[in-house]
TrEMBL record:
Residues 1-20 form the signal peptide. TPR repeats lie at residues 23-56. This is Uncharacterized protein. Keywords: Signal, TPR repeat.
């Protein structure tokens, strides 16, 4: 080897060694900052590292994880996708789930749905594991989100002014004596790159007086500010003499919190003390207090990951006696999940608990839900748009008059300096003083947005082997009978298959029931609520309903069968809300309203020709997804007569 080439080789090795040392330094510092929760600096060093090496899977994973923590959903989805494309969830098992979750938080529900369905298959070897359970729950959640996006309630919706909402994070907590109590992550000096030049950069409690609907300048509550400690989540006792709040130290990516109480002396807070171990369980994270009245007693709602929970942060409550005695906390097991439930708000007048969760059907991240108590807490109900969004929506609370509500969200449109979804702002919603009724055109546009409503049936149902064209079966009874057969469908359709092919067939059937059969009933109920509103106005409405069947029976039989199926839907309408639709269907409504149903029974004339019509091949002619997809009726149009 010539001396020239030897020199070149030595220089190359020297530069390579130097580059590797530089890369290691960047990655070590990025990990250190990530562990400290300083995602802005961590991202800067990951980006420097990726200029040297943008292909190593570990670097891509670390970058994706930091982007998720920084709430940059779009970029996080892109890099999780790159990671999963390379390692197929072998090196980083949660890569596919996180790819789906970040995609969902961008509002792309179609792509997210496909990723979660893939996740169900990828993680099904451990059906009791979190990755499988979460993927399965998110399949249903995406189907729900697709069906419900755009259903914005008639609210006046606005962000609080910019002297309250900054490019950092704000979280609203309460209105007390015409003062907004909120938390804010503020520093004295912040660059346009979101770099903090203040060693006391922490979340602190603030208050802003409200005069004539305006918010005055926010002032930090000095007595509740501590060095290197985050405070927030303020709530007053029922008599206003005590103030509870969260006191949190940094614990890497998360806070480690306990609940403190201060006594109120005019505008000041004195005699600050921590609640005992009954509430602040040792080695647990306990935070987000809210004081309310329940069953004639003062009660403390809070969240904690203490022992005895369902998983993650759970909702708990403890009754208070004499202002300082706390009963053993009770876990609200019917509402808590394996994910986090956060930021409780109790409406004593309506016996309703509001909270945020990342598990139930929602638009993405944390959504706000409500549950009414009547001997037990009801199934959580999503508060819908505009309160919820694909981003994180938390800290919902209402004013004492109940005329307006507040919540915090990092949705697009919030203040920021670099990442549009980095930080939360406080938003308010209220009903307009004078709500103009929608025009006929607007009402029918809303109805038609719900179409088609598609309802599915088991083979030859209702009234099997009948030649009648009418039925006394209520569709909802037929539906419950149908979904009770899911396991039977899985077993029959997977017969003769083994291993992955058998599991794929079962998943295919389960996805069909989730995406279509169950969703059809939800769509119908939402449609009927809107239809009810229009009929109450005396409208004369015509529905066109088409019926379809699989090609298993003869065509003339299938025409009669589809008529029975349409009749079962009419029976469901007749039973809805104690027979609300009956006078409209019969033409005897006092307000002159009318509901007319035009039936178009296609039978099997438009069924997919590849669907088996062999009665001896029930696997494909009855239990296959293709056959099941043909057995349906559709409300296809709404017209004003």
């Amino acid at each position: 080897m010539s001396r020239f080439y030897l020199i070149v080789l030595l220089l190359f090795l020297s530069f390579a060694s130097s580059g590797q040392q530089e890369l290691k330094k960047y990655l070590d510092f990025a990990q250190e900052k990530y562990d400290e929760g300083d995602y802005v600096y961590a991202l800067q060093y990951y980006e420097k590292a990726m200029k040297i090496d943008s292909n190593t899977i570990d670097i891509l994973w670390g970058y994706a994880e930091t982007l998720r923590a920084y709430k940059d959903y779009r970029k996080a989805a892109f890099y999780y996708g790159k990671v999963y494309g390379r390692e197929k969830a072998q090196l980083f098992p949660s890569s596919l789930l996180q790819y789906g979750l970040m995609t969902k938080q961008t509002g792309d529900y179609d792509q997210a749905l496909e990723l979660f369905k893939l996740g169900k298959k990828k993680y099904r070897q451990d059906r009791r594991g979190y990755l499988y359970m979460k993927s399965r729950a998110e399949v249903q959640s995406c189907v729900w989100a697709k069906s419900n996006e755009g259903d914005t309630a008639n609210y006046i919706f606005e962000a609080l002014p910019k002297h309250i909402n900054t490019p950092n994070a704000e979280f609203g907590h309460r209105i007390h004596k015409n003062q907004l109590i909120f938390s804010s992550l503020r520093a004295d000096s912040i660059s346009t790159n979101e770099e903090v030049y203040d060693t006391t950069y922490s979340t602190h409690l603030y208050r802003s007086a409200m005069e004539n609907g305006e918010y005055l300048n926010a002032n930090q509550i000095e007595e509740l500010a501590f060095d290197n400690i985050h405070t927030g989540n303020g709530t007053y006792s029922l008599d206003g003499s005590r103030f509870y709040f969260s006191y949190c130290g940094d614990d890497g990516q998360n806070y480690k919190c306990k609940i403190l109480v201060a006594y109120v002396d005019g505008e000041s807070f004195v005699d600050i003390d921590t609640l005992g171990r009954i509430i602040n369980s040792e080695n647990a994270n306990t935070t987000m207090p809210f004081i309310g009245e329940w069953i004639g007693s003062e009660v403390l709602f809070f969240v904690s990951d203490r022992e005895g929970g369902r998983g993650g942060m759970d909702l708990w409550y403890s009754f208070i006696k004499d202002g300082n005695q706390y009963e053993k906390p009770i876990n609200i097991r019917t509402l808590n999940t394996v994910d986090n439930e956060l930021s409780p708000f109790w409406d004593a007048e309506n016996q309703t608990l509001y909270f945020s969760s990342s598990w139930y059907n929602g638009f993405g991240g944390y959504d706000v839900f409500k549950s009414t108590y009547n001997t037990a807490f009801s199934e959580p109900e999503n508060l819908m748009e505009p309160i919820n969004s694909p981003a994180n929506d938390l800290y919902y609370f209402e004013t004492s008059k109940g005329d307006s509500a507040f919540f915090s969200s990092n949705r697009l449109g919030s203040n920021y300096s670099k990442n549009p979804t980095c930080c939360s702002d406080i938003y308010s919603v209220r009903k307009p003083l004078i709500a103009l009724p929608p025009t006929i055109e607007e009402s029918f546009e809303e109805l038609n947005k719900r179409l088609p409503v598609t309802l599915y049936f088991h083979n030859d149902m209702p009234n099997p082997r009948s030649t009648d064209t009418v039925s006394n079966v209520n569709y909802i009874d037929s539906y419950y009978d149908y979904i009770s057969r899911i396991d039977n469908y899985k077993n029959e359709y997977s017969k003769g298959l083994k291993g992955e092919k058998s599991e794929d067939a079962k998943d295919d059937i389960e996805d069909f029931f989730t995406e279509y059969v169950k969703q059809g009933v939800q769509d119908l109920n939402q449609f009927m609520d809107l239809l009810k509103d229009e009929l109450e106005k005396g409208r004369k409405i015509e529905l066109t309903v088409k019926g379809f069947a699989s090609p298993l029976a003869k065509s003339d039989y299938n025409v009669k069968l589809t008529k029975r199926r349409i009749a079962s839907m009419v029976n469901y309408l007749s039973s809805y809300e104690n027979g609300f639709f009956v006078p409209y269907l019969s033409g005897n409504a006092e307000n002159g309203g009318l509901l007319s149903i035009v039936q178009i029974p296609f039978g099997d004339s438009q069924s997919d020709k590849i669907v088996s019509d062999n009665p001896n091949d029930k696997k494909n002619s009855v239990y296959s997804r293709a056959a099941a997809s043909e057995r349906k009726i559709e409300i296809q149009s709404v017209d004003l007569l």
